[in-house]
Design goal:
mainly alpha, 2 helices, 40% helix
Length: 105
């Protein structure tokens, strides 16, 4: 049997514990509200957990705990700006008309 290797050092344990607390509380509240009816309790637990998860993940509450499973990566180092082409050199001749001058007779 092949197993998927897990890099235990890369697991965000604070996030896992936080989600486990959400599940525990939502299950407890769901069972209390359903008066120990298993189906209703499971449904209420799922709805309460979904609400808590969406609130925690997407609401800007400003708490220092993690809000997603992705690891934040440092932005790439800024590279040198692309070279700028030199400005075109304007001729010193002030004449801008390209028609030939009239022939003097």
């Amino acid at each position: 049997m092949n197993s998927i290797p897990i890099d235990w050092a890369s697991v965000n344990w604070v996030y896992v514990a936080l989600l486990a607390v959400f599940v525990f509380i939502s299950t407890l509240i769901g069972n209390l509200l359903s008066l120990n009816h298993r189906g209703i309790g499971a449904f209420l637990s799922a709805v309460l957990f979904a609400a808590a998860f969406v609130f925690w993940t997407y609401y800007p509450h400003g708490l220092p705990l993690p809000t997603s499973l992705t690891v934040a990566k440092a932005p790439p180092a800024p590279s040198a700006p692309p070279p700028v082409a030199p400005a075109p050199v304007r001729p010193s001749n002030p004449v801008t008309d390209v028609t030939p001058p009239p022939n003097p007779r």
